[in-house]
Inverse folding.
């Protein structure tokens, strides 16, 4: 009955392919439901909203089958509402769930409605995320697997170092925050995750996306290359013996499996603006654009951020990371001016240290393995903490870090 914080929006599981019909008395409720129907987490559901409240619902289902979910928005008091539900029950098919949006914050009424078989009761005015969360929870059992967090990272142009950052963020999530993490290298032709981790696994992400009929948890688990105790990788083949053209939904099933089995998933999304790349960025819990301080990067970052903000109206805003900053004698756009132009303050500013980055790249190591106290390594650790959603832990309290983070990433949406 209580609205959840907007910051928890990334923990809402996608709604399955269900039909939902809403009967509203308030136009505001109808607008909320119509807005929810456009959210990425509701894209599989067939949603319709009409005015008329419980009376319209009873009339509609006298001769028609009921959908998976009926939503009733009403200002009726307890006895009148119970009378409407009794009348509607005569026409409800077995398995139909009923959600009531009412005006009374009354625990006794809430208990009575649950006793009558109502699936949930919301007190108006509700909001889009609360409504989506309520519908999502109807299909998540108490024993469901923990909902993982997907973080998609891409560059504003070539040469921004987005892949390097993605690989180091995955390493930091596993090593510094002790979170089970999977890195998926989605640049099948030119991906460098295998090189950066000094591995050459015989299988990887290509085996998953080119065999959609075989994809399940067991199959994906066999494809993962172990990088450390808490970090695994779906490597790209890095070969050009075939073309890597995918449908818009080509990676959906793989992403669903990774989300259901892994607390933290890092997607290294290659540069480009195809249907499937846009979908991965839009559907991720956190979308990160990596830019460098030049004009082309500014233009592209601005376009990407605006497109993602428009497509992710009910999600946390996409993040900007400024990388390769401070190269001596190179003319650069000031970071504050860059941020003002794109309308987003950077979540991290990472200075370029050529020796550190060069050694790491050539040795197949992460920055923190070379020099954990270097400024870029420290900036990446702080960025990882922000992306995963963990509060800052002061020095001297590291002993509390692992249990807190483990609990945080494994808790179900509530």
């Amino acid at each position: 009955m209580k609205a959840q914080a907007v910051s928890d929006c990334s923990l809402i599981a996608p709604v399955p392919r269900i039909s939902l019909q809403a009967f509203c008395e308030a136009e505001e409720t109808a607008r909320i439901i119509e807005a929810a129907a456009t959210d990425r987490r509701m894209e599989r559901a067939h949603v319709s909203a009409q005015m008329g409240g419980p009376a319209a619902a009873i009339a509609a289902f006298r001769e028609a089958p009921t959908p998976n979910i009926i939503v009733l928005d009403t200002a009726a008091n307890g006895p009148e509402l119970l009378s409407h539900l009794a009348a509607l029950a005569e026409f409800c098919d077995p398995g139909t769930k009923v959600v009531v949006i009412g005006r009374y914050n009354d625990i006794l009424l809430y208990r009575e409605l649950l006793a009558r078989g109502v699936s949930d009761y919301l007190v108006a005015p509700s909001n889009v995320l609360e409504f989506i969360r309520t519908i999502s929870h109807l299909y998540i059992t108490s024993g469901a697997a923990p909902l993982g967090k997907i973080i998609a990272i891409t560059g504003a142009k070539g040469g921004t170092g987005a892949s390097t950052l993605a690989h180091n963020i995955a390493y930091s999530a596993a090593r510094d925050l002790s979170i089970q993490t999977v890195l998926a290298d989605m640049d099948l032709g030119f991906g460098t995750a295998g090189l950066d981790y000094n591995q050459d696994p015989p299988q990887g992400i290509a085996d998953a996306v080119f065999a959609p009929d075989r994809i399940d948890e067991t199959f994906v688990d066999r494809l993962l290359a172990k990088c450390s105790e808490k970090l695994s990788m779906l490597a790209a083949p890095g070969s050009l013996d075939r073309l890597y053209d995918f449908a818009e939904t080509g990676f959906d099933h793989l992403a669903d499996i990774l989300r259901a089995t892994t607390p933290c998933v890092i997607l290294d999304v290659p540069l480009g603006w195809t249907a499937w790349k846009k979908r991965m960025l839009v559907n991720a819990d956190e979308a990160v654009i990596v830019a460098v301080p030049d004009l082309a990067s500014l233009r592209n970052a601005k376009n990407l951020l605006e497109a993602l903000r428009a497509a992710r109206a009910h999600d946390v805003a996409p993040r900007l990371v400024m990388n390769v900053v401070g190269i001596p004698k190179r003319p650069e756009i000031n970071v504050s001016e860059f941020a003002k132009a794109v309308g987003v303050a950077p979540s991290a500013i990472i200075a370029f240290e050529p020796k550190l980055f060069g050694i790491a790249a050539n040795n197949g190591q992460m920055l923190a393995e070379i020099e954990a106290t270097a400024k870029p390594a420290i900036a990446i650790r702080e960025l990882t903490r922000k992306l995963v959603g963990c509060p800052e832990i002061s020095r001297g309290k590291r002993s509390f870090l692992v249990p807190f983070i483990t609990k945080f990433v494994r808790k179900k949406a509530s």
Observations:
- The first strand starts at residue 19 and ends at 24.
